[in-house]
Amino acid sequence: MSTQGHRIEIKHGTEHVRVVVNGQVLAESRRSLLLFETGCPVRYYLPPEDVRTDLLTPSATHTVCPFKGTASYWSFEQGPEDLVWAYPEPHAEVAEIKDHLCFYEVQLG
Fold it and tell me: Counting runs of H as helices and runs of E as strands, what totals does the chain give?
């Protein structure tokens, strides 16, 4: 997808992605979607089956991206608020990331 110089590309990842917060493993996946977006670091969107959603609490926070849609956020009880986000109803151009969860920091390998 490319709009007015803004570009988003999604690729299927094969690397082992792991999210650890305060010593707790919150996610591990080899099925991530890598989202490349102009002006942003690469983001790893993980399928919900690979995330410990039982350790996350929905947040009241929502943000709007003109290119992806409205994001919903979750917090980790023993860590940062609004640590995780997802697009429950993303724009058609990025529909592949629907319901996949994204963390600010991930470990590879």
Answer: 0, 11
Distances from the Cα of 46 to the Cαs of 57, 74, 82, 98, in angstroms? 17, 14, 16, 10
| Residue range 10-68, pLDDT digits in tens | 999 999 999 999 899 999 999 999 999 999 999 999 999 999 999 999 999 999 999 99
Global confidence as pTM: 0.91
Q: b/e map of 23-60 (b: 16 or more CB within 10 Å)?
A: eeebbebeebbbbebeeeeebbbbeeebbeeebbeeee
Distance CA 28, CA 50 (A): 6
Longest distance between any two alpha carbons in the chain, whole Å: 42
Where do the DSSP E strands lie in 4-55? 6-12, 17-21, 24-29, 33-37, 43-46
Strand order in the sheet with 107-108: 24-29, 17-21, 107-108
